[in-house]
Amino acid sequence: MEDNTKLQKEFQKKIKPFQPKVHYIKNGSKAFVVGGIICAIGQGISNFYLRVFDLTETTAVSPTIATLILIAALMTGLGIFDRLGQFAGAGAIVPVTGFANAIASAALEHRSEGLVLGIGANMFRIAGAVIAFGVVSAYLVGLTRLLVQTLIT
User: Fold this and answer.
1) How many C-beta atoms lie closer than 10 Å to residue 119's C-beta?
2) Contacts of 118 (CB under 8 A, 6+ apart)
3) Cβ neighbours of residue 67 under 8 Å, at least 6 residues apart?
4) Helix crossing, 80-88 with 61-77: angle to 10°?
5) pTM higher than 0.85 for the full model?
6) How many folded domains does the chain comprise?
7) Is residue 68 part of a domain?
C-alpha cells in the first residue's frame, strides 16, 4: 500500500509540468458576467410580459421561463450555446437555460435514430436524473415543512 502511494506521488510530480494551468479568477469572472447577463435577459423578458401583456409578477413567471427555454433550445440547435458554454463555463448553466440545453443537445444527438426511438427515448437521458432529484427533493422538503408546522402548532 505504501509503495502504491509513493508511486502515485512520483507520477503526480512527473506530470505536473504538462498539466494546463487553471485560471480561477479569469474563469470565475467570465462565469459571473455571462450568468449575470443571462439573468438580466430573463428579467428583461419578465418586464416585457409585465408591461405589454399587463400580467402580474406571479403570472409573468411561466411565460418568462418558457421563453428562456425556447431561446436556449434554439441556441443549442444553432450551435451557439455550445460556444457560449466553452467560453463561460458554469456561467452558461444558469438553471433554466442549462436544463434546456441538456435536453435539446441530447435530442439533437439522437435525431438520426428517429422521432420515437431516437429523440423521444433519449431526450431525458441526461436530464432525467435532474428531474427525479428535483421531484424527490421537493417532496422531502415539503414533508419536512409539514412535519415541523404540525409539531409547532
Assistant:
1) 17
2) 110, 111, 112
3) 45
4) 100
5) no
6) 1
7) yes
